[in-house]
Specification:
It contains 15 helices and 7 strands. By secondary structure, it is an alpha+beta fold. Strands 1, 2, 3, 4, 5, 6 and 7 form a 7-stranded mixed beta sheet that branches. The mean pLDDT is 92.
Length: 354
């Protein structure tokens, strides 16, 4: 009886799967791009980005030769920008090695920025390899089916489920359909809250459902409240030009541009902080003027309140002493540079966006 649930799952998926552009034309390249984009991001959010990306880079070779700035600009707003840089590096590595995306899980795993999840997705959905994909949806489905008391955010659990489901996938004809079905089940039926167990194709094999404890699973470790930071940035004007700095690859949001600034120190006002940060970061002295915007923004592990001030140079020095790229640009040129999402709220205050 236990070996019947994969076929029941696949049968359900073939009748209920959502239409997605990467499913319509499921080439390994399109699968690679879509799966990188889908990491920690909803399908509805990804679809327009995927279309724009495919229009700009229809082939892996096109992506490999593209400037990083263009790749990041097309990714702008999708978040987790290291994914874009890793995908770009991956494309370059594949082209340098001959241009063919590897079919095997182990070979895919060796590519820049490719983890178990993406390697398994490309291997199974792009090449029919019998290897399991384990994302958050799959973890939840498996934990409920097994009535597993191990917290779902335990690092070793993903490895355990990967091994178990890779054994299961050997029994099915289409590993692509099985993996997609597991993820689709978690997205549509076995949701984090309010799962629709009456419509679930694997309910007869789900221990949490059969024992009427579905609401108790999956288990999770208690979450700590994420920290909050006060940040101040300066829009430094030299006549009609603004100073922007580029974040290094090692920094969070690496490769994106920003206005100089940083965290407030204890006892500082936002205006004092922006003046100090600009001097420390660029060697420039400024007069801090009007506060243009106060932006609240949440990242995955922390949140910020960002104070943005209009600043003017105080003195004749206009060349920053800065060890990372910088440019003086006009306001209307800002739209050509990739910026973090929080900065677009500043642009709205500047009336640069509709």
């Amino acid at each position: 009886m236990q070996d019947k649930w994969p076929n029941a799952l696949i049968s359900w998926f073939e009748k209920n799967q959502r239409q997605m552009p990467w499913r319509e034309t499921a080439t390994p390249y399109r699968i690679l791009v879509s799966e990188v984009m889908l990491q920690q991001t909803q399908v509805a959010t990804v679809i327009p980005y995927f279309h724009r990306f495919m229009h700009a880079f229809p082939t892996l070779a096109d992506l490999a030769v593209a400037p990083e700035e263009l790749v990041l600009k097309l990714w702008e707003g999708l978040g987790y920008y290291s994914r874009a840089r890793h995908l770009h590096a991956c494309a370059k590595a594949i082209v340098a090695a001959g241009g063919e995306i590897p079919a095997e899980f182990d070979a895919l795993r060796k590519l820049p920025g490719i983890g178990d999840y993406t390697a398994a997705a490309v291997a199974s959905m792009g090449f029919g390899q019998k290897v399991a994909v384990v994302d958050g949806n799959v973890l939840r489905v498996r934990a409920r089916m097994q009535k597993d008391d191990t917290p779902i955010d335990t690092p070793s659990l993903k490895k355990d489920y990967f091994q178990a489901l890779t054994e299961t996938i050997q029994t099915v004809e289409s590993p692509s359909l099985f993996n997609q079905a597991m993820m689709e089940l978690g997205a549509l039926i076995c949701k984090p809250t309010g799962p629709d167990c009456t419509q679930c194709p694997v309910a007869p094999w789900c221990r949490a459902f059969l024992e009427n404890v579905i609401a108790d699973y999956p288990k999770k470790k208690p979450k700590k409240k994420p920290p909050h930071y006060e940040v101040a940035v300066g829009l430094i004007y030299d006549s009609d030009r603004l100073l922007i700095l580029k974040r290094t690859d090692e920094q969070m949001l690496g490769g994106l541009w920003e206005f100089p600034g940083g965290k407030l120190e204890p006892g500082e006002t936002p205006a004092q902080a922006v003046q100090r940060e600009i001097q420390e970061e660029t060697g420039l002295y400024v007069t801090v003027g009007k506060e243009l915007a106060i932006v609240n923004h949440a990242y995955s592990h922390f949140s910020i309140t960002m104070h943005a001030f209009r600043c003017t140079l105080n003195g004749k020095k206009k060349t920053p002493d800065c060890d990372r790229p910088w440019q003086w640009v006009q306001e209307q040129e800002l739209k050509h540079f990739p910026f973090p999402k929080a900065n677009h709220k500043i642009f709205k205050a500047m009336k640069l966006e509709n």
